[in-house]
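Researcher: Let's run the pair from yesterday's discussion. Sequence first, then tokens, for each.
Model: Starting with the first of the pair.
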Amino acid sequence: MARIIGYIAASLDGLIADENDNLDWLFKYDGMDLGEHDYRSFLKTIRTVVMGRGTYDFIAREASPWSYGDQRTFVVTSRPIVTPKGPLETRSDIDALIAELRALDDGDVWMLGGGQLQMAFLERGALDEIEIYVIPEMLGGGRALFPLTGFRASPTLVSAKVIDKGCVRLHYRFEHAA
């Protein structure tokens, strides 16, 4: 059974994008030394990538090439993607997608991007672990790491580690997950 995991950066005030859905605040940390937790190393452990439509649209607007050619990719959306940037499949039913992902046995699933889809998975007990990279920036407004939906949980801290440039890596496990 595939593990469904999150790997995401957030500002110190709990935001993943500024008020203009911009990530420039994060890009200035691109050269940061994450050691064994480096994004490229992480991506090599992932077989399947799942993202919401907002995250896909953000990636599709970027001039950079599609980064997920080695991974099976699902975009959760109710609208068709006319000209996909890379090889992907779309799904609109989150519960059916979770069942499909849980049936996979060929590697981990990365819940990429925004907190809205991650929250939908959390509410269904389907996010097993999350790595949050807390960046020492205060944005003051923008898109929250996790939207406030009334969902409550007490995840178990697996590890906390100070990394480069004043950033902190937090790794949590959700015990309710299957």
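Model: Moving on to the second of the pair.
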Amino acid sequence: MPDRRKAAEWMRRYLPSEVAGTVAELGCAAVAYAWTGSFVVAAVAGTIGSSVGYYATAYGAALRWFYRGRRGSWPVRVLVANGLALRSVAIEFGPAEAVDSVLVRPLAYYAGPQLLGGTAAGWIAAKAFSDIAFYVLAVSSYERFGALLARTPHIAEELDHGPEPATTAA
């Protein structure tokens, strides 16, 4: 079982993306189901919505982190930061996303409502089940390949003592 600092680190890292992905996931699934009446179309739409919402947020955070850590002219900073952000997101989330989007989430969204007898309950259970599978893989990549990822170097210290005060040049 992870310690509190590690759990807080993961929450701080993944919660903004999770909120954005959840809103897009459930919204897209609901709209698709309302338009088509098909659980299959809703499952696909929910999966796509989840990915778009989640990764737009994760990529934006990685891009900001790498951009701030670079020096030089803005076109070079932007290009390098985008390349590093893309690498970071691909390494951290690539394996988890492949398993989640191709297998786990669509099957869970299709089967959940049928097994539980209700669309809303089925989708909530499908989301919970899918997220567990996703985060087991994503957190494993985060911990294993941390040196290649966009992450605050002293995040544990920040959680204990707050962020370091900004310094100003004289």
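Researcher: Give me one sentence on the second I can quote.
Model: The helical segments are 4-36, 39-68, 74-116, 119-144, 155-161.
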